[in-house]
Design goal:
Pfam families: Glyco_hydro_1 (PF00232). With about 575 residues, this protein is α/β, with parallel strands linked by helices. Helix content is about 45%, strand content about 15%. The chain has one domain: Alpha-Beta Barrel (TIM Barrel). The structure holds 1-deoxynojirimycin.
């Protein structure tokens, strides 16, 4: 019986059916297993390697009290953004179209039919934004390179747009002059439209080479100064929302197959780019190449119930493990292979809808991750739920045989899907430690939104979110998890994909109604800045003081924003950047 207070999160239409046995899956897999001895050997080695992962203890969830203490010396504090979400200048200086330009211009795809055409005008305001970062005393800034801005058709041999290269050169140089380390993402979802139209985007294997060429160009032009590269941001979203549900560009609904195929090509593209860096550039540039994976935590509804534990593990494996297991261990999680394989057999398919890697591909992929980027926002309770595996109605979601639930007592100040559950962050980080050999982790995204209707700069709920999530990360480090840096998401309010501008994640408020897109600090700026300066949390009194002062300062910013709004009705001119008045 589920506790009364849990409520289900409905992601897909639900049809119940009791769970079927495993035999057909075994049949499928024995058909697929290659019979030559070398291959069997490889498979055995892989099984050994996978089982070498430490066990994660699902049965203990420590809700320790707040921990006052500091982060390790040299811990890197940052904030993030992505090209399509902030740059604007969608058709300027020779930039080609991306799938998001085209998708957002179609009516009905984005809340209020918003587009990223001008967004925060980050393309023109990167110097102002660097001042904001300096004010925060950030150690790093995470941004992404727009592929069509530097290669307009996506194909390097067609044309390189030197103006686009120049923009990123200036941004990188300016950050470095200000002692801010750039952490650069190569793919934050904005595929060149030509590649979508000509080849079907990530459904097509040719993307691997095109992406590798693009990455190689970035290493060549920027790699003397950029030392942290992230190949893909949140490939889960690209695959599932781009090719399965169609909520994101390119808007395809290839249920049950599209996401798996896209992910397969993305994982191979990641591995190829890692090898390119490793063989051609690492020697002289001495940088690191990782991938940034998104992972909500899945907690068993009942941690003493084995079926709930298995369902929760499936949730995490189908989410984070789908990408992390190949890059660390060389293959998909066993549970994904079992579940998708079994359901494919029931559908009468000859092979699994989850593609397979060849033995050569497995060894090529294994270990292609110098650091793991983790984007984390929220948690779900998970319980087992069987879905039928008939010909129709199969999808990534039903393949997992589980139900997602939330506790309505969890705070949810902004996005519908985002409940604040700080302890889930520590659980996720510990899970990563046990599964992938305690890799070097950079938290590449963590933060909380508010609804657009709320023009409140006194974002106490965000202060609370950051305070508690960062504290859980500190506890995870104390548990032995190797976290090297943290990136608040995001520096600015920005285009929030299919939600348009209706959800604001920024530390800085952006007045999108004003064509100058002025930035205003929210109270959380002050609070985050204190955490950075102290490199942690001193004691309860001090931390409470930080909160109080932050809230005091923001009430005057609120008044100024209101006054600017009134004034802007008469004059179009606005302050470009609002200075932060506070000394730490
Ligand atoms: C993850 C995405 O990478 C990022 O672009 C987005 O803003 C956040 N999720 C919040 O939805």
């Amino acid at each position: 019986m589920l506790p009364d207070y849990l409520i289900p999160v409905l992601l897909t239409p639900v049809r119940d059916r009791s769970r079927t046995g495993r035999d057909p899956c075994c049949r499928l897999w024995s058909n697929m297993l290659p019979c030559c001895a070398v291959r069997v050997c490889h498979v055995l080695m892989l099984v050994l390697c996978l089982s070498a992962a430490e066990d994660f203890d699902w049965t203990k969830n420590n809700h320790d009290s707040f921990y006052y203490g500091t982060f390790p010396t040299g811990f890197s504090w940052g904030a993030g953004s992505s090209a399509y979400q902030t740059e604007g200048a969608w058709d300027k200086d020779g930039k080609g179209l991306s799938i998001w330009d085209v998708f957002s211009h179609k009516k009905g795809k984005i809340q209020q039919n918003d587009t990223g055409d001008s967004s925060c005008e980050g393309y023109y305001k990167f110097k102002d934004d660097t001042s904001l970062m300096k004010e925060l005393k950030l150690n790093h800034y995470r941004f992404s390179i727009s592929w069509p801005r530097i290669i307009p058709t996506g194909v390097k041999s067609d044309h390189i747009n030197e103006k686009g290269i120049q923009y990123y050169n200036e941004l990188i140089d300016h950050l470095l002059e200000n002692k801010i380390t750039p952490i650069v993402t190569l793919y934050h979802w904005d595929l060149p439209q030509v590649l979508q139209e000509k080849y079907g985007g990530w459904q097509n294997i040719s993307m691997i080479n095109h992406f590798n060429e693009f990455a190689n160009l970035c290493f060549e032009r920027f790699g003397n100064r950029v030392k942290y590269w992230i190949t893909f941001n949140n490939p889960w979203s690209v695959a599932v929302e781009g090719y399965e549900t169609g909520e994101h560009a390119p808007g395809l609904r290839l249920r049950g197959t599209g996401a798996y195929k896209a992910a397969h090509h993305i994982i191979k593209a990641h591995a190829k780019v890692w090898h390119t860096y490793d063989t051609l550039w690492r020697g002289k540039q001495q940088g690191l190449v990782g991938i940034s994976l998104s992972g909500d935590w899945g907690e068993p509804v009942d941690i003493t119930n084995q079926k709930d534990i298995e369902a929760a593990e499936r949730y995490v494996q189908f989410y984070l493990g789908w990408f992390a297991t190949p890059v660390f261990h060389g293959d998909y999680p066993q549970v994904m292979k079992d579940f998708v394989g079994r359901k494919s057999v029931h559908q009468g398919l000859g092979t699994s809808r989850l593609p397979m890697f060849s033995p050569q591909e497995k060894s090529y992929m294994k270990g292609t991750c110098d650091f793991l980027g983790i984007g984390h926002f929220t948690t779900r309770y998970i319980t087992h739920k069987s879905y039928p595996s008939g010909r129709s109605g199969t999808s990534y979601f039903t393949d997992r045989d589980l139900a997602e639930l939330v506790d309505p007592r969890w705070p949810d100040p902004g996005s519908e899907w985002l409940y604040s559950v700080p302890w889930g962050f520590r659980r996720l980080l510990n899970f990563v430690k046990t599964q992938y050999g305690n890799p070097m982790i950079y938290v590449t995204e963590n933060g909380v939104s508010e609804k657009m209707s709320c023009t409140e700069l006194c974002d106490e709920w965000r202060i609370q979110y950051y305070k508690d999530y960062i504290n859980e990360m500190l506890k995870a480090i104390r548990d032995g998890v190797n976290v090297k840096g943290y990136t608040a998401w995001s520096l600015l309010d920005k285009f929030e994909w299919d939600e348009g501008y209706s959800e604001r994640f920024g530390l800085y408020y952006v007045d999108f109604r004003n064509k100058n897109k002025p930035r205003y600090p929210k109270a959380s700026v002050q609070f985050y800045k204190r955490i950075i300066s102290f490199n942690g949390f001193p004691n309860q009194r001090e931390v409470e003081n930080w909160r109080r002062k932050a809230v005091e300062t923001c009430s005057s910013s609120n008044q100024l924003l209101a006054a600017a709004r009134r004034e802007s009705k008469e004059h179009a001119e606005m302050p470009k950047v609002w200075p932060v008045h506070d000394e730490v």
